[in-house]
Amino acid sequence: MIQEININNFQSHRKNTVSLTPGVNVITGTSDSGKSSIFRSLIWVFQNRPNGDSIKNWNSKKDDEVAVEVILNDGCVAKERINSKAKYLLDIDKGSWEFEAFKSDVPKEVEDVLNLTELNIQNQHTPYFLLDDSPGERARKLNELVHLDVI
Question: Assuming Cys at both sites, which of 26, 57, 72, 131 could form a disulfide with 9, CB separation 3.0 to 4.6 Å?
Fold first, then answer.
């Protein structure tokens, strides 16, 4: 479970920490206060998207580091980018590793620790999970969630 998100120089966030509690968390605020940027910072770590300079804080300098650290119950996953060079840092009970971020791939070790797929993430414009799907599509998604899709 995610306990905390530390955001540095990511879109509207110069330096911000978001602490989460067990259960459902709701992020509220006025328009243009950075709520969606928090969500996009997580997508940047989980899915290695978006690419390019759209992630960088608008007031940061060219060589400033962009970083998002996700604190979990059993460790931490971080993604950092300076100029065009990005890397993942993984620090869990079993040890610490550094991986170069390459294209849009997320390192397998990071994926395994996060244990998230696109089905786990829903933003404000995503249709409600499973409600708009056909029965066959619902079955496919539920099988993917519990890893029966490999059979």
Answer: 57
Q: Could you tell me the CA-to-CA distances from 13 to 58, 97, 133, 138 in Å, in that order?
A: 9, 26, 35, 37
Dihedral sign of CA atoms 65, 74, 113, 36 in order: negative
Q: What is the DSSP string of 99-118?
A: EE-BTTBPPHHHHHHH---G
3 pLDDT above the threshold of 90: yes
pLDDT in tens, 29-78: 888 888 888 988 998 898 888 776 677 887 787 788 899 999 998 899 99
Beta-bridged to residue 95, according to DSSP, are 92
Q: Which whole-number Å values give the CA distances from 33 to 11, 51, 105, 106, 148, in the listed order?
A: 11, 22, 30, 28, 40
3-state secondary structure of 56: strand
Write out the E strands in 11-131: 13-19, 66-72, 75-82, 85-92, 95-100
Average pLDDT for residues 90-111, to the nearest whole number? Answer: 85
Q: What is the pTM of this model?
A: 0.76
